[in-house]
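User: Predict the structure for this protein chain, please.
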Amino acid sequence: MTKELERCPWCGTDPIYQQYHDQVWGRPVRDDQVLFEKLCLDGQQAGLSWITILKKQASYERAYANFDAEKIVGFDQQKIDSLMQDPGIIRNKLKVQSIIKNARSYLNYRDSGKSFSDFLWQFVGGTPIQNYFETIEDVPALTPESEAMSKALKSMGFSFVGPTICYAFMQAVGLVNDHLQTCPQWQECRDLAN
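Assistant: Here is the predicted structure, written as structure tokens:
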């Protein structure tokens, strides 16, 4: 008798969380713009649960010009003040400023003629790391790769990119496949990596 596959337990029963788990989390992303947006959003979850940010994602996209870095770096004090009043996002001054700071760092890197995607993927050798975890307790909160990514991003001027945030980001954008082996998405993400 074969064991029935079930989703990773972290997404619980919330339909929004399950949809994110089934269709987004762990799928390899190589688009610079999407990676920039996701890195910014992951930074917003510092001290909070991801579901909090996930439920506010549409508000973040509206507030931050669909994460168009060139528009974000042009935000003036009036725009920043309006963001601090926006109930659709986390109204933390450091977090609001971090997205503007990250946009500047992202553009500096992009304008040097380099690929942000290539930069991020170098930390896993260009190919998703396939993990074989059986329980949620087996999954690490950070790794040497996420520590190296964090250090490199900080040196480029990014903020809210500590090693734990970087590892959550790596999981989300498929740099690592951390679906449990008992989850149907584990094999799907493994196949997408090839």
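Residues 22 and 185 are 6 Å apart (CA to CA).
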